[in-house]
Design a protein that fits this description.
2 copies of one chain form a homodimer. By secondary structure, the first copy, chain A, is mainly alpha-helical. Chain A is built from 12 helices and 2 strands; from the N terminus they run ααααααααααααββ. Chain A has a two-stranded antiparallel ribbon. The radius of gyration of chain A is 33 Å and the shape is elongated. Chains A and B meet through helix 1, helix 3, helix 5, helix 7 and helix 11 of A and helix 1, helix 3, helix 5, helix 7 and helix 11 of B. Chain A binds a DNA duplex (30 and 30 nucleotides) through helix 2.
DNA sequence: CTTGACCCTGACGCTGCGTCAACCCTGCAT
DNA sequence: ATGCAGGGTTGACGCAGCGTCAGGGTCAAG
């Protein structure tokens, strides 16, 4: 006769596990000796080994009981099911690993490589870390909303950085946030530049709208909100822009006529 | 400003998940509107997307917070750890699958192929299902205790079945259990056979002990117990065997002189 | 007689939410 | 004004498979 500890040792499991199997009815409660100790016979050992064999094979305990009583056909069917579940789980984890492999650097965390390249380019032209962080967050939102289109947009965005005025714009913005003074005179220059660029884009018929519909208004609002939340000078610039007839950080467009 | 539902939809998660992230402090609780509704800005969306990206990559939520604040070196280190854990988990599951693949039939459940072959052989010579079930359980115990040695023992065991007396023994035992009468006269014949075989083995110097030590006494006791538990005629046979000077079902040996 | 190694039951903890329950708010159609 | 659908709020239990206390009692040996 075995105590619970001996039984567990024989089958290579913990005492707690054996008690757990009792609780869920997988292993019948054995007789007790005078002092209340459980005492097990050989059949319990066999049963426990069977249980562990199935459990080690990845069978959920809830199904182990049924499987041990099943006829060969039902058994085979259950094995099939379990195997399919294991396959799925392995696939899921493998996908996770591929994801993890892409997390080597901070930037590539949530962003596709072309966007990371764009951010790197921004850094090269002297953009400050705070502006970069803001840009990164913005692109995170964009990549979440238009995961496919964003890849098409990147060549255009990248090309814009070849325009010295755009470079100047980012440098000005960097200086402004880094200086951190209340009424920075360079704000005016920024607004001039932005208006100039917007007007040129309008003339060329490219309003940075690409293929987004009205469903996306909320997304653009979020992007603008993001900029405003990042730095209060952003709000000031938007105000000045509105006075000049333009609205929106991300999707700059003509201010709609106020109704009435 | 977004409600919790809009936020969740934007990031592709459930409302419940968002609230969970609040609870565990992964996502800061936002402002409330006059009626107590949470209202979120763009930064929350970004944060939520970052969280999901790491979580989807298999990072435990408990580590996500730290990782999002970590410097690149610490981050890379953490990524390494996560990847190792994922590898382990995948290996575990793959091993499970290999196990599951071996579970096609009931017999091979816990037993290595040579033992299954032996059981098949037993069935062929006309052994009854109940005896077979007992044998199977016995071999389960043996395979659990001596997983390596059992493979060495099988050729001998298999060869024993070429002896007509052994075949006769199993057939007699089968008839006895199937008949299920109290004082089956065939029991005598069984005992005669067993004694004959034991004496022959003794003469040949092979006492079926192989390389087991005294630590294994408990295992043999279990095996004998298993037989006794399976059928009460087993006990009767053991008694008769003891009268003839032999003890033990599995490791038959001379009865030790009673002390005193 | 003490000590250490077991045994007992009962209960909480872990992961990442799903799923009620019971109630309040909002916006639209009637 | 009313009703209703479809949001939102907190609180709490449930899941798998045990690990891990807590607070006892028991056994074998020195």
């Amino acid at each position: 006769m075995l105590t619970i500890g001996q039984l567990a040792a024989y089958a290579g499991v913990t005492v707690r596990a054996v008690r757990h199997y009792h609780q869920i009815g997988l292993l019948p409660e054995p007789e007790r000796d005078t002092s209340g100790y459980r005492k097990y016979g050989a059949p319990a050992v066999v049963q426990l080994i069977k249980i562990r064999t199935l459990a080690d094979a990845g069978v959920p305990l809830a199904q182990v009981g049924r499987m041990l009583e099943a006829d060969p056909a039902t058994f085979a069917e259950a094995v099939e099911r379990i195997d399919a579940q294991l396959r799925d789980e392995i696939d899921r984890l493998a996908a996770s690993r591929r994801q993890v492999a892409r997390l080597t650097a901070g930037d590539s965390l949530v962003l596709p490589p072309p966007v990371v390249a764009y951010l790197d380019r921004l850094r090269e032209i002297g953009t400050s870390d705070r502006i970069l962080a803001g840009e990164r967050d913005g692109w995170i939102l964009i990549a979440a909303r238009w995961p496919d289109q964003v890849l098409e947009w990147m060549p255009d965005k990248m090309a814009q950085l070849d325009d010295p005025r755009v470079v100047r714009l980012y440098q000005l913005l960097s200086e402004i946030v880094d200086a951190d003074v209340v009424d920075d005179p360079r704000v005016t220059e920024v607004v001039d530049l932005m208006v100039e660029l917007a007007e040129q884009a309008e003339a060329a018929g490219v309003i940075d709208v690409h293929e987004t519909g009205q469903d996306d208004d909320i997304s653009f609002a979020l992007l603008d909100d993001l900029a405003d939340a990042a730095d209060k000078r952003a709000e000031r610039i938007r105000e000045l822009m509105r006075e000049r007839g333009w609205d929106g950080w991300t999707r700059t467009q003509r201010v709609k006529e106020p109704p009435g």
